[in-house]
């Protein structure tokens, strides 16, 4: 086996799963598989596998693989497809619907392995954007709510401008001058601030929708 081993990393939910191809067959880092299956001791777990299901890979000439505190890893346990299935079968939660091990099992068998067999590697880009899919309804709801709030803000602004116009006409008809800090001048100041806020909100919304369309 070549010592200049190149790992490919992909993500299962929030966990990194590293794999490599040896003799056209996929092998997985046992520590990553065990972590996804909630198995605490990966060394002990793979030691109970058949000899043809796992091996210890010497990484003395491999760069870029470190442990949790940044130290260069000298060797790692890896399991092949058969070894991974054995680990899954020994994990009780892997058959419990809704559990992380169950989701991992379904994901590996339905997505990762078929694509590795077909292309020789697993491409993360082939996965749907699950985060966006999950939150898309909520994003659309927030967008609708913001549009409604902006509509009511515009209506309130228009009512205040009309009220200001009518009151100003009334003051002029009665010959009353606006002197100093009156409630009307305060409202006029508020109107100007409201005008700016509405216009600024419209600009923010246009930018938001432009960015959103990129998805």
From TrEMBL:
* Pfam families in the record: Bro-N
List, for all copies, the residue spans of the domain called Bro-N. Answer: 4-120
Superkingdom field: Bacteria
Write down the InterPro entries for this protein, in alphabetical order. BRO_N_domain (IPR003497)
- What PROSITE patterns does the database record attribute to this sequence? BRO_N (PS51750)
Q: SMART domains of this UniProt entry?
A: Bro-N
Q: Which PANTHER family match?
A: BRO FAMILY PROTEIN, DNA-BINDING PROTEIN-RELATED-RELATED
Q: What is this protein called?
A: BRO family protein
Taxonomic classification: Bacteria, Pseudomonadati, Pseudomonadota, Gammaproteobacteria, Pasteurellales
